[in-house]
């Protein structure tokens, strides 16, 4: 990053905003804010208020953002780039605008339609995948399957640095709905067993058809005096295990990109189903992906 002395990069997702000030190629400062689904005012006003902290200390050359900031609820709609796509094609599909007189580029999400006609979209995860490949040269060559756990987990296929396809599993959203809005985990009463114990039991049943396996969370509380945490762990293991069983069959080690506490659960599920994984820090991957986008911009405008 030699062409710009002072830039801002950021990941603006549904639930949080992370902005990073880049000075002479190094991360100099960080600001955190609300996600696009939590805004009580226009996104442009939120961004302007946060940038004012850094603008007070000097000019900003340009801003590069990824994630849900490019959705209708964000700063501006950034149309999806269709798969297959490499990092160069992804960056060329960016959307550009001006905010506070500053150049802002919003990186696109990706879209595809599977061979069976199933529509798929994502925003933000593609930045992490390109970032993981930038961090680890071994991931740029050959074929790989990346897993990105989350509210809407992604399983992303690549070939020689090109994202060729992906599938989505809304496991996090389903887990939140079941544990928060059904009777399956039961009341706030004492019981035996930890989340980890329940998770292991859920994994052991995760190859079964899901509807018939769900009710053990409730029945085990009533007949076996299991705790609410055990029931939550059971449902987590069941759902994550089922997701891994469906999408995680790969002959090679699967890079897991995300929060360490969540990727640890997926690593356990992959091991249970006979697979192997390597963990890539989600924040490091998104920063690397955004920095790579800056490098691509500079290569066109030396």
TrEMBL record:
Gene3D superfamilies: 2-keto-3-deoxy-galactonokinase, C-terminal domain (3.30.420.310), 2-keto-3-deoxy-galactonokinase, substrate binding domain (3.30.420.300)
EC number annotated for this UniProt entry: 2.7.1.58
GO molecular function: 2-dehydro-3-deoxygalactonokinase activity
The protein's enzyme class: transferase
Entry superkingdom: Bacteria
Protein name: 2-dehydro-3-deoxygalactonokinase
GO biological process: D-galactonate catabolic process
UniProt signal peptide: none
Entry keyword set: Kinase, Transferase
InterPro entries documented for this protein: DGOK, DGOK_C, DGOK_N
């Amino acid at each position: 990053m030699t062409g710009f002395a002072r830039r801002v990069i950021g990941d603006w997702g549904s639930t949080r905003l992370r902005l990073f000030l880049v000075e002479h190629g190094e991360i100099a400062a960080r600001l955190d804010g609300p996600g696009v689904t939590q805004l009580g005012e226009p996104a442009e006003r939120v961004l302007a208020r946060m940038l004012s902290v850094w603008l007070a200390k000097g000019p900003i050359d340009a801003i590069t953002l990824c994630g849900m900031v490019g959705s209708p609820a964000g700063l501006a709609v950034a149309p999806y780039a269709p798969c297959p796509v490499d990092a160069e094609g992804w960056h060329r599909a960016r959307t550009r605008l001006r905010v506070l007189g500053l150049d802002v580029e919003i990186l696109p999400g990706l879209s595809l339609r599977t061979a069976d006609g199933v529509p798929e979209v994502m925003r933000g995860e593609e930045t992490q995948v390109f970032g993981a490949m930038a961090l680890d040269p071994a991931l740029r060559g050959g074929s790989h399957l990346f897993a990105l756990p989350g509210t809407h987990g992604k399983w992303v296929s690549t070939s020689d640095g090109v994202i060729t396809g992906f599938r989505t599993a809304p496991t996090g959203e389903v887990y939140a709905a079941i544990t928060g809005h059904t009777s399956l985990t039961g009341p706030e009463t004492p019981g035996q067993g930890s989340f980890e114990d329940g998770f292991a039991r859920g994994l052991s049943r995760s190859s079964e058809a899901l509807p018939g396996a769900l009710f053990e969370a409730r029945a085990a509380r009533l007949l076996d005096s299991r705790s609410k945490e055990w029931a939550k762990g059971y449902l987590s293991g069941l759902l994550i295990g089922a997701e891994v069983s469906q999408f995680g069959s790969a002959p090679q080690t699967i890079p897991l990109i995300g929060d360490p506490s969540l990727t640890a659960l997926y690593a356990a599920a992959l091991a249970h189903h006979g697979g192997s994984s390597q963990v890539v820090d989600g924040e490091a991957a998104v920063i690397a992906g955004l920095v790579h986008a800056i490098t691509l911009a500079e290569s066109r405008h030396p």
